[in-house]
């Protein structure tokens, strides 16, 4: 994943020190991170999460209405299938704090004061680990997907078919998790930004995708159902 792609990720910065927030936000924006939401406490952070759906959170440990560890658990409860990457920012450098961060699943821990370059490098490392490079060409039993151009090449007929925006979002999420089950909620979130009330629409889109990629849509070989859980995309290494 290129640095430019990393910088398109939405960041949530939570710290009760206004000056530090301004400094970090300005630093991130100067580095090209164009989506930085700020919050001074737990309640503001929860509201900012709902509004911006961040892809990485920078959390201070000590907050006026709680602590970063509890906030981390709150934020991750929103999407348990795709935990939000978290880096803790704190003035403390104590073993107990580090252990508490690890227990709640922190991805990294930066002690104040920190250099701007150190924070940027740690953020990039976490983003690369949590958001692998987007697969552009995906090989299936009967089709080759060009996700960058939303194109399907069917090998049985040789025809090219175009994916809709929703179909591409669903296939992109499945391809990122190739040969693994992806839950219905995660796929609905990827396509519609919400997991509530879209299960039936997802089934309709899956059926249309199968018509484009499968030799026999009624006997799918590539996009298969994991009953009661979600779907799996069976991807080949190459053709």
UniProtKB/TrEMBL annotation:
Residues 135-235 form the OmpR/PhoB-type domain. The keyword Coiled coil does not apply. Keywords: DNA-binding, Phosphoprotein, Transcription, Transcription regulation, Two-component regulatory system. One of its GO terms (cellular component) is cytosol. InterPro entries: CheY-like_superfamily (IPR011006), OmpR/PhoB-type_DNA-bd (IPR001867), Sig_transdc_resp-reg_C-effctor (IPR016032), Sig_transdc_resp-reg_receiver (IPR001789), WalR-like (IPR039420), WH-like_DNA-bd_sf (IPR036388). GO terms for biological process: regulation of DNA-templated transcription. Residues 135-235 bind DNA. GO terms for molecular function: phosphorelay response regulator activity; transcription cis-regulatory region binding. Residues 10-127 form the Response regulatory domain. The modification 4-aspartylphosphate is found at residue 60. It comes from the Bacteria. PROSITE patterns: OMPR_PHOB (PS51755), RESPONSE_REGULATORY (PS50110). This is Response regulatory domain-containing protein. It comes from Slackia piriformis YIT 12062.
